[in-house]
Specification:
- With about 190 residues, the protein is mostly helical.
- Among the domains are: about 50 residues, no CATH class; about 40 residues.
- About 85% of the residues lie in helices and about 0% in strands.
- It contains 4 helices and no strands.
- The protein is rod-shaped, with a radius of gyration of 68 Å.
Length: about 190
């Protein structure tokens, strides 16, 4: 026992370079006491756990974590593939709807274009009719104005001729002749 006590007392005299205080970390100068202390600590804290069992458990745990990670990755991959397929399906559907809208839009544009052309033709036809009616109205008005002027000029010319040709005597004779004609018409009707 004295040797053991001396060994512990002599630990204080060991150099600290490369040591932890109680243990000599230099593998070549490690003595039997250090090895026994290390083995005692391992046995005390290990309590029936063998190194191969501990290593096996560590490897099994690591294997389970890796398998779980792979399983989770596969599930995520499957979900991502499913979402991708749904997105592709929606994309195809939207593209088909866009094509239908495009075709319907072109058809609608063509219909609107034809409606606009027809409307313009109708408007032009109405304008042509209004123009023709206006021309006819103006022609008729001009003809009426010309007739009135011709009539007025003819009347003035006739009155001028009558006034220049008629004197009092001729005027009285014309009146007497007209009275005679009216009198004979009256006798025939009675």
């Amino acid at each position: 026992m004295k040797n053991v006590t001396d060994s512990f007392l002599s630990l204080g005299h060991w150099p600290f370079a490369g040591s932890f205080g109680f243990f000599n970390t230099d593998i070549l100068s490690t003595n039997l006491i250090n090895l026994s202390v290390v083995l005692g600590v391992l046995i005390f804290f290990g309590k029936g756990v063998c190194a191969s069992c501990l290593l096996s458990d560590l490897l099994d745990n690591r294997k389970q974590r890796i398998l779980n990670t792979i399983r989770n990755s596969e599930e995520l991959r499957g979900g991502a593939i499913e979402q991708l397929e749904k997105a592709r399906t929606r994309l195809r559907k939207v593209e088909m709807e866009a094509d239908q809208f495009r075709v319907n839009g072109y058809s609608e544009i063509e219909r609107e274009k034809l409606n606009l052309i027809n409307s313009i033709y109708k408007t032009l036809e109405q304008l042509e009719n209004y123009k023709n009616e206006t021309i006819q109205f103006e022609q008729q008005r001009t003809i009426n104005q010309v007739r009135q002027r011709v009539f007025q000029q003819a009347l003035q010319g006739a009155l001028g001729t009558l006034n220049s040709c008629l004197n009092n005597e001729l005027h009285l004779r014309t009146i007497s002749a007209n009275i005679g004609i009216l009198g004979s018409i009256k006798e025939k009707t009675d």
